[in-house]
Write a structure and sequence with these properties.
Strand content: 15-25%
Strand order of the largest sheet: 3-2-1-6-9-8
Number of helices: 9
Helix content: 25-40%
Radius of gyration: 19 Å
Largest sheet: 6 strands, mixed
Distance between the termini: 45 Å
Length: 308
């Protein structure tokens, strides 16, 4: 018989030890690798593949941190009398099963936690409720992981607050975090929920208020980058060196919907850097994302929505 469209509750087998264990022994997170996790909170079907791409790299490069994917519990529900699934929902369920079976991801369906301005939401602060972990890392969509070792080291950084952001923007841009470190606890979770505004939840605004890490250790300054910052690189910038030394690239540019879309030429032209090496790095990142999206998820780029 065909499998039920309702997802089985997979709890991916935790990542095991490998030869990297000895290498990372001197930089083990507090409580060990079973107490830290990469988390992805997906609310839209568009971002499920991005989460899967992250977990695929973690598996390929043998990161020992745990992996948790939170998604709306309504995606598990089967409407009575429904003969066929919405194609987007069907794709998301397929990708969620892949995450658990191939990449050892714990799937956690979640319900909205609070009602803000008449809308039921699961805020980013909800990740503080994952008290089974001493620290979790959240990567806002969308982005490309190039090297997990640098990201793994972030689990060992001293935490100045329960939520700490790492910004990859330039001094000219806004300092919204491209990586968020969270230290879950019941008390902090309740305090953050109570502090949310009553009229409207805006995650971009919430992220803009996250305290930023003042300085990364000298050997980790290239861990995180953002595509929009490539416009401000000087003539000494080298694209190959940038791609070799960066662990995570947050893909976010003005006038671009995101790397999941087949962007119009005019949008690409306005967002792409002018300097040759910066332009090369920018184009390589978008192309790597497109190829990896197809390889991992079996998905082509989304058509850009029509204006008007």
């Amino acid at each position: 018989p065909p499998p039920s469209p309702v997802l089985a509750k997979h709890f991916g087998t935790p990542p095991g030890h490998s030869f990297f264990d000895k290498y990372l022994a001197s930089n083990r997170p507090k409580g060990g690798w079973s107490k830290v996790a990469y988390t992805q909170l997906v609310r839209e079907h568009l971002h499920v593949c991005n989460a899967l791409m992250l977990f695929a790299v973690l598996e390929e490069q043998e990161s020992m941190a745990q992996r948790v994917l939170l998604y709306p519990n309504e995606w598990d529900a089967k409407a009575s009398g429904q003969k066929s699934l919405d194609p987007r929902l069907e794709t998301s369920r397929r990708l969620l099963r892949e995450a658990a079976k191939r990449y050892r991801v714990m799937l956690q369906p979640v319900e909205p936690m609070v009602k803000i301005g008449g809308e039921s939401v699961f805020p980013l602060a909800g990740l503080l409720s994952l008290s089974a972990y001493s620290r979790v890392i959240y990567l806002p969509p969308s982005g490309l992981v190039l090297d997990t070792a640098g990201l793994d080291h972030l689990f060992t950084l001293p935490m100045e607050s329960s939520i700490l952001g790492i910004s990859a923007g330039s001094a000219i841009e806004s300092a919204s975090p491209s990586v968020v470190l969270l230290q879950p606890s019941k008390d902090t979770f309740q305090a953050e929920l109570a502090a949310l505004p009553a009229d409207k939840y805006d995650e971009d605004h919430y992220l803009s208020k996250v305290r930023l890490l003042a300085d990364l250790p000298e050997d980790q300054v290239h861990v995180v980058a953002r595509t929009s910052g490539l416009r401000f690189e000087d003539d000494g910038f080298d694209a190959d060196e940038f791609l070799d030394s960066t662990s995570y690239v947050h893909i976010a540019d003005p006038n671009m919907l995101g790397p999941e879309f087949d962007a119009p030429r005019q949008s690409i032209a306005s967002a792409r850097p002018d300097k040759p090496q910066s332009k090369k790095a920018w184009q390589d990142i978008y192309e790597k994302y497109r190829i990896r999206r197809m390889d991992v998820c079996g998905l082509d780029l989304e058509p850009a929505p029509k204006v008007g």
